[in-house]
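Please decode residue identities from the backbone states below.
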């Protein structure tokens, strides 16, 4: 029997990621900070009493930018080079029937901002502005299963690229107040090689771009080295 399950966004997360390209494919792979801003009705301190004792939390969210594209019965997982199809329920693809996602992140602190509860977290893999529909504490004894088998994604993604910055990129970073932090973030993200797998053996003159915070990062890859060309601040 089919019936509706309405969902309400209890909050929205702020992250440096302004577009999908470049976001880590799982949480915890890169040390990226984020802030979950709780919405009215869900921003009362009493709703979070006791949560400060937990080091990590589960965030349930909506892949909101994928809703208009519908869902797919089979997808091409990046871990398989984008060349093999798997059933959507055997993957973590965002193109799901209800577009729901789940990430575990480190809880740094719980703060009040103008009377609203905000959760400061680390290890995020979410697009800026992603709707959050639920928060739960992470329980190591229950959520970590010893001896679990992870199919085609058994191993943690490896660092694939060395990362260097052009003189221009270094100079641009020096003029940014968050330049040092942004440089570290860029290094972590590019080391994992965010390019689609089918492009990793293509021409090395291709220039890629991704939006981080208010900056446009442009880079290319040659001989397993990602060269950051420019880090241009937006208007």
């Amino acid at each position: 029997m089919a019936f509706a399950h309405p969902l309400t966004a209890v909050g929205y997360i702020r992250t440096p990621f302004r577009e999908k390209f470049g976001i880590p494919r799982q949480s915890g792979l890169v040390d990226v900070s984020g802030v979950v801003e709780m919405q009215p009705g869900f921003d009362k301190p009493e709703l979070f009493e006791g949560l400060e004792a937990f080091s990590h939390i589960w965030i349930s969210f909506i892949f909101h930018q994928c809703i208009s594209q519908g869902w797919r019965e089979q997808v091409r997982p990046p871990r398989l080079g984008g060349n093999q199809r798997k059933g959507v329920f055997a993957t973590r693809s965002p193109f799901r029937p209800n577009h729901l996602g789940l990430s575990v992140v480190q809880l740094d602190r719980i703060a009040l901002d103008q009377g609203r509860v905000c959760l400061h977290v680390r290890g995020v893999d979410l697009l800026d502005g992603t709707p959050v529909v639920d928060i739960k504490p992470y329980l190591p004894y229950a959520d970590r299963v010893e001896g679990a088998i992870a199919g085609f994604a058994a191993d943690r993604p490896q660092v694939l690229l060395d990362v260097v910055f052009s003189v221009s990129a270094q100079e641009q970073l020096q003029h940014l107040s968050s330049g040092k932090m942004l440089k570290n973030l860029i290094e972590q993200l590019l080391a994992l090689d965010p390019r689609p797998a089918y492009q990793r053996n293509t021409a090395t003159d291709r220039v890629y771009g991704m939006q981080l915070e208010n900056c446009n990062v442009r880079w290319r890859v040659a001989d397993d080295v990602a060269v950051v060309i420019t880090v241009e601040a937006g208007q």
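Observation: The chain has a mean pLDDT of 90.
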